Amino acid sequence: MSADPPVGELLREWRRRRRLSQLDLAIQAGVSSRHVSFVETGRTMPSRPMVLRLAEHLGVPLRERNRLLVAAGYAPIFQNRPLDSADMAAAREALEGILRGHEPNPALVVDRRWNLLLANSAADVFLDGVAPALLEPPVNMMRLGLHPDGFAPRVVNLEQVRSYFLPRLARQAMRTGDPYLSELHEELVAYGPPGDAAPPDPAEIALPIRVRHRGAELAFINTITTFGAAFDITLEEVAVEAYLPADPATARALRSGDDGAPATGDRRTWR
What we know:
Number of strands: 6
Mean pLDDT: 91
Oligomer: single chain
Domain HTH cro/C1-type: 11-65
InterPro entries: Cro/C1-type_HTH, Lambda_DNA-bd_dom_sf, MLTR_LBD
CATH class of the largest domain: Alpha Beta
Protein name: Helix-turn-helix transcriptional regulator
Strand order of the largest sheet: 3-4-5-1-2-6
Low-confidence stretches: 260-265
Region (Disordered): 252-271
Strand content: 5-15%
Pfam families: HTH_31, MLTR_LBD
């Protein structure tokens, strides 16, 4: 395995990814542009506080901040504890509480790569009828949603959904610098480009995801919840994806169980 580039090169890469000049970064971080230049070219080795300060103003994810610290010759400081570890019990309990609170609406927890970690029983609306191979852990929800053998064939407005989620995934890949997300984006694009999607209905408040499920058409709007001020890598990277009914008919179906899933049930772990 090849060694990481020097810390200056890594910082320059993040600055360019954020489309900032050296002067922009210097002003935000409260240092001179000359100092930023010297750090990037390797003429100055930044202190650990300086690495962390520049990383903070560049919005570098915690996982990558550890990489910057190591490249500068310092020990990593951000831990990466599994969600099922004792130290993460409070966070996991909070996530499970959020999932319970969303029932009978579908809600699930994903990691930074869209792999499914937890789900409530109502999330079966997205898991029902997909190819068994796609349900082998880790279950990737982006892949599950856009794969021809996933629930994509049941998405009524698939072209609109693709035109929204594919650019979102591309931006995430660019923002995080994660090669896995870039590869996932290329894979999903290969299933069919967004094309000329119909513009959203001006009467809508958000782009609905319309799914055929057991003889009914359900419409959802999507929300995302993340932890603020997280200092653990796992906690920073998890997100709750909740799907709220976009019309009264969907709300009634979910409340009554007419969607084919129970109104409440156990939260499940997907590893």
